[in-house]
What does this fold into?
Amino acid sequence: MAATTTAIAPGDALLVVDVQNCFCPGGALAVPEGDAVVPVINALAPRFANVVLTQDWHPAGHISFASQHAGRQPFETIALPYGEQVLWPDHAVQATPGAELHPALAVPNARLILRKGMNPLVDSYSAFLEADRKSDTGLAAWLRSQGVTRVFCVGLALDYCVAWTALDARAAGFDVTVIENACRAIDANGSLAAARASMTAAGIALLPSLD
Ligand code: VGL
Ligand code: ZN
It folds into this structure.
């Protein structure tokens, strides 16, 4: 088999990160071309026996919202007890249209929809560990319980939630590949180059597409 061919196996999982209205054009934290990932993911997902969808799911007034910090603007950073936090426009507020999965996302074989970022005082880009780097969502244990050894990450945004999810999957011992044509990035303040460098340094494969 050519080194560039990736065959999907029963122990593989597809993690579909945060394909929500708020991260698509017209949304509160729109990722450029965010909705372009939808048809790519719809075509990929049936090939996987294990598919997990994640949903950023913040309470109103979440600590990551710039609106909660007087005099601060979106995309600035502040120091919080758990470390540096980028401030965002209000987004992914629980039970609002922006928090819904994109209406054209069609992944009926998804086994789990994992919501994250629900602690009002702690953000969670990663689907595995919250930003305090302690609170565990249980996803790694669930994947292991299903016999998963290799994780493919796709979705929004490549430089935030996809990257943090991929890095934590790798740290949890999974083989990790990011399928780049099924991702789009925010790319603010060099975040995409930094995310790519961290992922590569961690041994994560960045695959242009899964053919
Ligand atoms: C995300 C910033 C804030 C993401 C979520 O899904 O990448 N980014 N919340
Ligand atoms: Zn968020």
